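Checklist before submission:
- one chain only
- standard amino acids only
- sequence pasted in full

Submission:
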Amino acid sequence: MKKLILLLVIIICSCSKTTSEIQEKKEIIAIMKQQETDWSDNNIEGFMEGYWKSDSLKFYGSSGITYGWQKTLDNYKKSYPTKDHTGTLKFKINSMAKIEHNSYYVMGEYHLTRTKGNADGVFMIIFKKINGEWKIIADTSC
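Returned file contents:
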């Protein structure tokens, strides 16, 4: 009887973990969907709501590493000053996995459709749950 109870507890815990991870992934995808919308509306500040508002945020792109939320925002605004520059953003998620408790990596592709000329690239971002919210703490895009 004790073995049966132990087995049931293990099954329930593993089902709960799976359900929890599915929910966490849905929450992260929802953030990325909102980012697509905000970017496509030329709302870079809204797009940046998905990022950790901290000087410890790391963004690694073609011009090297940038530290900090404000500097990342400033760089985006400088590089994408108008709707013609931001265009319409679509993400394609190729892989998403839990790294540790409250942390996931997301690997994928981005596609910008714009009158100024389309742009495509790849990314790997790390989400961490901070104060109950999923935030990007590191981004490598090129």
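Reviewer check: The chain is about 40% helix and 35% strand.
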